[in-house]
Amino acid sequence: MNKIGVVFGGQGSQYENMGRVFLNHPKTKNIYEEISEYEKIILNGSLEELSRTKNLQPIMLAFQIAALEFLKKDENIVATCGLSLGEYASLVLAGSLSYKDALFLVKRRGSLMQNESQKHNTKMLAILNKNENEVENLIANFSYPDKIYISNINSPKQVVVAGDRENIDLFKEYLNKEKIRSIEMKVSGAFHTCYMENAGEKYFEELKEIEFEKPRINYYLNLTGEIYSGEDLRMVLSKHIYNPVRLFDDIKNMIDDGVDKIIEIGPGDVISKIIRKNFKEVQVISLKNEEEIIKR
Fold it and tell me: For the chain, what is the largest distance between any 2 Cα atoms, rounded to a whole number of angstroms?
């Protein structure tokens, strides 16, 4: 029997009307009742409105939690992790957090991160075909090395950086001259960097009110890239907001620990593509939208 890991995507792959099918589905409408204030955005909102992190975080998490209702009950799910926001769906799957508490938290998380991002004119940039050390060297050789920050290590060939919009634009020009590919991210702030430290500290106060249970399956932390081993999840999740996401380490450690099949719950299939490129022996299933999830 396969040992299955479930991974959850992060912001950046959202699409208009995401969650519309789940909104009134008999299996999932109770989940969407917890975010009823976002119904108009789900049904009629523009992609721009959806993509504001204060809206996107609860809407995307509801989508991911809803998807869990369609996983087969006899599947041997032994491990989980998520990309940034996706970590909350992994906590729900692991039994550490109720779906109601998870949705409550990301409403506050999204609002705090949105408020903080509005204080700064920032953007994020994915650098392709370079690993963490190579990106660190590129930053060190840039004209303003103290203005660019690594925010996500998604794979040995994809590292995301963030900073002030002007400096990121200059850094992108520098990368172009070095013939290095980069892609701007569809997000609204310099997440997982020092720009979000104030939001993370405020969020810690919210987390004090939440009870976490011990995970029932292996759960891998974005903050460290390692399996959970008793850390204070309030501290982990607050620091998570302003520290780099170590997604690739999560996936590698999950596979090293015996996972041989991975299901990605999107939206999108960004993580599946990373796994297929780097772990060819692992079977990967991508569930990118409601239709694919329900059909399964």
Answer: 56
122-184: CATH, from 3.40.50.12160, 3.30.980.10, 3.30.70.250, 2.40.50.840:
3.30.70.250
Say whether pLDDT at 22 is over 90. Answer: yes
Confidence of residue 187 (pLDDT cuts 50, 70, 90): confident
- pLDDT tens string 259-281: 999 999 999 999 999 999 999 99
**Which of the following is catalytic: 13, 25, 51, 84?**
84
143 is annotated as an active-site residue: no
Which CATH fold topology does 4-118+194-295 show?
Malonyl-Coenzyme A Acyl Carrier Protein; domain 2 (3.40.366)
192 classed as catalytic:
yes
Q: Where along the chain do its domains lie?
A: 4-118+194-295, 122-184
Please give the model's pTM, rounded to 2 decimal places: 0.94
The encoded tokens of residue 75 equal: 């599947």
Query: Residue 47 CB: number of other CB atoms within 10 A?
Result: 12
φ/ψ region of 25 (left if φ > 0, alpha if ψ in -120 to 50, else beta) reads beta
> Peptide bond preceding 267: is omega within 30 degrees of 0, i.e. cis?
yes
Catalytic-role residue among 25, 192, 240, 286: 192
| High-pLDDT (> 90) share of the chain, % | 93
What confidence category does residue 296 fall into, taking pLDDT thresholds of 50, 70 and 90?
confident
